[in-house]
Amino acid sequence: MDLDALEGVRETLIEACDIGAVSIDAGAVERVATNGLFLLLSAAESARAHAVSFAIHNPSSVLLAAIDRLGLAERFKGLI
Asked: Where would I find the STAS domain in this sequence (predicted)?
């Protein structure tokens, strides 16, 4: 998820949260911007506030490395 994709991902996450439980398959992630990680955290918090489940499944090694590199592992705990 790079900066060019963020707006589309944001809109998709909003629509998904409106429908119900959100489950993201992140196995194909090859790039991720810092803003993309914070977008996922924000979406998860919004889902939680609306009593909607939010989970990230099958995270790629790229996604996990970015989360770790930025010190966000604790914030993603329970989402992955």
From this structure: 1-80
Cα distance between residue 17 and residue 15, in whole Å: 6
Query: Amino acid identity, residue 55?
Result: A
20's CB contacts (< 8 A; 6+ apart) are: 52
Q: In whole numbers, what is the pLDDT of the chain averaged over residues?
A: 86
Point out which residues pair with 55 in neighbouring strands: 23
Domains delineated in the chain: 3-76 (3.30.750)
* Cβ atoms 26, 33 nearer than 8 A: no
